[in-house]
Specification:
The complex is a heterodimer of chains A (about 100) and B (about 260). Chain A is mostly helical and about 100 residues long. Chain A is about 70% helix and about 0% strand. Chain A has helices at about 15-35, 45-65, 75-100. In chain A, helix 1 packs antiparallel against helix 2 (about 45-65). Chain B is mainly α. Chain B contains eight helices and no strands. Chain B has helices spanning about 5-10, 25-60, 60-65, 70-95, 100-130, 150-155, 165-215, 225-245. Classes of the chains: A mainly alpha (about 100), B mainly alpha (about 260). Chains A and B meet through helix 1, helix 2 and helix 3 of A and helix 2, helix 4 and helix 8 of B.
Amino acid sequence: MNHSNHSTRSEHIVNAGLYWLVFAILIAATFLTAWIATVDLGVFNTVVALVIATTKASLVVLIFMHVKYTSEKMTKAILISAVFWLILLLVLSLTDYSSRFAG
Amino acid sequence: MSDSPLALEHEARPELRHHFADEEQQRNAASLGMWWFLGTEIMFFGGMFCGYLVYRRVYFPEFAVASRSLDLVVGTLNTAVLICSSLTVAMSVRAAQLGKRKLQVQLLLATIFFGLVFLSVKGYEWRNKYKEHHIPTFDYNAISGEGDLTKGQESLLGLDKLKNDPVKLQERRAEIQQRSKLFFSLYFALTGMHAIHMVVGVGIFAVITFMAWRGKFTPEYHTPLEIAGLYWHFVDIVWIYLFPLLYLIDRRPGA
């Protein structure tokens, strides 16, 4: 570690404008997802709802939770591994149960 | 930041614990601990989400019809309330980074306010569910397909094909009753567990607000506020997924 490098020692202060922008997107996406659910898209209704939710969650994680700015690589490692295990849990369980009750 | 050697730096900063080299390391260690905890929280909620998704997949028609009994407008507005609280948390951390104490306290009070509004609205929704006999207890009497369904819902549940067979129709109604009950069990488990996290969050932020009011947080040290904020944002994210999964299963017109 090079302690003379002072730029890595102070926290990144996020621009207030960016917080407001993320907030506006999150609010808009909330109303968008509620509205689009009433439009008949067939099976894509669920897909669109989950894509919007994941976009919102990513914005919260990256900007509000400062993951985009952190100098600590372990934070990203924990996050990625937790999400990976979650996906493993959901995908494997769903493929199993989906094929069991098919037809 | 000063150029002073390590020992002097420790003397000058009472918040810096002696086993950390500098504030950045201390800060990272604290936030890493919270991230580990949030990792376990993802697993915790993940199990319930998994159970929900499996049953939603297997009993889709019943879940879709039961989901429509939730109030879409109230749910959407409550989601917006929670997003407002996330903004005020992020802004209060920023206020601490900039050393603005008064603004920090105001934003934290706003966060607690939004959190309490969310919980009150949730309570209002649960009260409606109680009145509709949608709470899965002995008094449960929800969607059974007797006069309370639209044409689209009846065809989704397969009731229209059983019109001429009263025995099978009765059997199917009992089945719908049971499966919609499962939806509401999962609904109350998921929103209830989320609400418990919200209550804990409001408690944490009451302490944090008190600390901020006492001037405990400076641009150099505001770790408790920062990691409490991580927790709050996480609870927000859980709701971001709960809202479409519970409220928006099938809202298409005519369905």
